[in-house]
Description:
Helix content: 25-40%
CATH class of the largest domain: Alpha Beta
CATH topology of the largest domain: Rossmann fold
CATH architecture of the largest domain: 3-Layer(aba) Sandwich
Strand order of the largest sheet: 1-2-4-3-5-6-7-8
Amino acid sequence: xxxxxxxxxxxxxxxxxxxxxxxxxxxxxxxxxxxxxxxxxxxxxxxxxxxxxxxxxxxxxxxxxxxxxxxxxxxxxxxxxxxxxxxxxxxxxxxxxxxxxxxxxxxxxxxxxxxxxxxxxxxxxxxxxxxxxxxxxxxxxxxxxxxxxxxxxxxxxxxxxxxxxxxxxxxxxxxxxxxxxxxxxxxxxxxxxxxxxxxxxxxxxxxxxxxxxxxxxxxxxxxxxxxxxxxxxxxxxxxxxxxxxxxxxxxxxxxxxxxxxxxxxxxxxxxxxxxxxxxxxxxxxxxxxxxxxxxxxxxxxxxxxx
Length: 306
């Protein structure tokens, strides 16, 4: 999950130096100490990419009207992973925003600010191993623990919005955590970690014979099987409406997953959003407007505070 599709190539000469070095390391270590190679691969798979510049800064709210910005607060929430700092913006029905793997709450700020301006209370936070959270391994299971802690401390959301792996987390928040939301918005949703094992193994050059061992190490770290974290399967149990956005040409999460997710989630509607990529879609005005319109249809514009 730490490797993007763009880093995978059939020839070593086109790969970045660090990837070539990692492939060489695994080629040697897999022969000398197979168990160590499996453990190392599992640890890399479970470690989010390094934070990009600006991911540790405060959530931007410059676009908010003064009435919404005056209600911006940061709340420290304790959970099993330590302290989570959640940002609440605006007031009204609560919308919880979930960023993706290797991202941060900053990714969700355009949507969160727009919802706050429209009369909603936006809640966003960094998942374990991301943004301002402590640097460590993470997983979809850790995402769910954090969602449960934040919802318990700040109250359950009326709507949940997730991007990429945060989209998978939103599915499980609805079906497994049973948050009493009225609906969900999935933006470029990822299906879960199991779908990325083979791609990761190819990217780092881990020998095929070591793949099962790596998976066993992952299961020990996560505490449950990767198959049990399949959001497409979990979506079949969803009983609230959902809206799914995805760029058909998304290079990080294939569009087929959005199609399968929408087919599995019976009360969902898929909206293809061409030419927006994997992250630009999060700040696209048409996407944001459609998400707010969807929320209004479920919650009712009259219940919002203008």
